[in-house]
Amino acid sequence: MADCDICGRPATTKAIIEGATLSVCARCVQYGRELSAPATRRPQQSRPMVELEVVEGYGRIVRQARERAGLTRQELARKLFILENVLERIENEHLKPNEAVAKKLEKELGITLLGPRGEEDRQKPQSFSTGSSTTGRGLTLADLVEIKKK
Q1: Max alpha carbon distance in the chain (Å)?
Q2: 1, 115, 144, 149: which has the fewest C-beta neighbours closer than 10 Å?
Q3: Angle 81-84-86 (CA atoms, 0-180°, nearest 5)?
Q4: Does the CA dihedral 108-113-117-121 come out positive or negative?
């Protein structure tokens, strides 16, 4: 374990002191309530992170599902605890919903808005290249600027 968060001696346990969980030594545990050690902790299995993105045509999907459900924008916005103008901007595809809002829409309307990010999106962005650049480093500022000679 680490050092005591109060006095700096070697910590032996954890305690809750004034609402904070601290590593404390045997002497400083008196200032709070000692936490009992968990019985057994299983190591968490790491799951591969899947990056999600909003599908193409999300606005049309949301609008059609809302209309099928017989809801107005105002009613749906109230159910999802979002502003009506935010829902309008999502339906018009002027605003991409964040993951939390997309999940709320999916659950309420029974639709799918989030899908795995495409393979091409996960790769590094490729640099532009032109035939004039012989260095192989891609597009440079000199490639963009037309130099006037006097």
Answers
A1: 84
A2: 149
A3: 90
A4: negative
The domains of the chain are located at: 1-35, 52-117
Residue with tokens 């193409």: 56
| Span 125-134, pLDDT tens digits | 444 444 444 5
The Cα 88–Cα 137 span in angstroms is 44
Read out DSSP for 55-102?
Answer: PTTHHHHHHHHHHHTT--HHHHHHHHTS-HHHHHHHHTTSS---HHHH
Q: Which CATH architecture has domain 52-117?
A: Orthogonal Bundle (1.10)
Give the three-state DSSP class for 115.
strand
The span from the CA of 105 to the CA of 103, in Å, is 5
Q: Which residues of the chain have pLDDT under 50?
A: 119-133
